[in-house]
Design brief:
- With about 280 residues, the chain is mainly alpha-helical.
- The protein has helices at about 10-35, 40-45, 55-65, 65-100, 100-110, 125-130, 140-160, 165-175, 180-190, 195-210, 210-215, 225-230, 240-260, 265-270; strands at about 1-5, 5-10.
- A two-stranded antiparallel sheet has the order 1-2.
- Helix 4 runs antiparallel to helix 5 and helix 4 (about 65-100) runs parallel beside helix 7 (about 140-160).
């Protein structure tokens, strides 16, 4: 830390921050400019130079291979999964902090114990269950397991936020005759809005980038999602590098838009409590 005048500068921290930014920016820059080259140019041009001949042919190939269908499937799976997670975890977290009996505490411990279960260890039982209930090779085969694995961490985060709400606010609404459902909707949910946006974006990222469930639980092209569809652009002896990177750029845009829209609320949710 160096003091110049009345200001203090963290030189080392700033330098490390610029190094970290450089490490993050270079791969993103490489992905974008390579998606604008043709297949031959990636072997002849400097990989980090601006393309001499900018072409969108890779993006045309991506759209000609039903990529919009895969984007639509990923959007449906992500949205429905996040809605299902919130529909289950908000009432569960609310009841856990409102009920102080031993069963509530045991239920909470049982739910968060799911954090210790690795997804890979359960893939075979999940595969047989999905087949038995007739959901194999459907979008629901991706939605239900993804939601189940996101519930423990989501409940834990929401419970921690709900516990910060003063109990006097709950008691005031009870005195006014409000029901438990009304208290949850009118008081608890608005008070934990940053936490809801944080867990929504966190869960959406995990579902959007999920690869194991789509690989094991789907088969047909009509139910393919983005991570699995990237395989389509590689062959046995050749790899369409610009096509793959164009697909990566397109696949990032929806989740990037969601992050930009909810960025402030997400940062508020992540930093809540730091100043206490």
């Amino acid at each position: 830390m160096i003091t110049i005048g009345h200001k203090r500068y963290n030189i080392i921290g700033g330098l490390l921050g610029w190094i970290w930014l450089f490490i993050i920016i270079v791969p993103i820059y490489y992905i974008v400019i390579t998606s604008l080259r043709d297949q031959m140019a990636i072997f002849s041009d400097n990989p980090l130079s601006i393309p001499k001949h900018v072409t969108f042919s890779a993006y045309q190939r991506v759209f000609q291979n039903n990529f919009l269908l895969y984007v639509r499937n990923s959007v449906i799976v992500t949205l429905v999964t996040v809605i299902l997670i919130l529909a289950v975890t908000i009432p569960a977290a609310y009841l856990i902090i409102r009920r102080t009996d031993v069963w509530s505490r045991r239920t909470y411990k049982l739910v968060i114990s799911g954090l210790a279960i690795p997804m890979q260890a359960t893939i075979i039982p999940i595969y047989y269950i999905i087949i038995k209930i007739g959901l194999y090779d459907t979008l629901w085969a991706l939605i239900l397991p993804s939601a189940a694995f996101a519930i423990p961490i989501t409940v834990m985060i929401l419970v921690n936020f709900l516990r910060d709400i003063p109990s006097s606010l709950f008691e005031a609404m009870e005195v006014d005759g409000a029901s438990e459902f009304s208290i949850m909707v009118r008081l608890a949910i608005p008070m934990v809005k940053p936490a809801l946006i944080t867990v929504s974006i966190y869960d959406a990222l995990n579902v959007w980038n999920g690869f194991l469930f789509p690989l094991i639980l789907t088969q047909s092209a009509k139910n393919r999602v983005i991570p699995l569809s990237l395989w389509q652009f590689q062959g046995q002896f050749t790899v369409d590098v610009p096509g793959i990177l164009a697909a990566v750029v397109i696949s990032v845009l929806p989740i990037l838009a969601a992050y930009i829209v909810g960025r402030k609320q997400m940062v508020a949710g992540l930093t809540a409590g730091f100043t206490k």
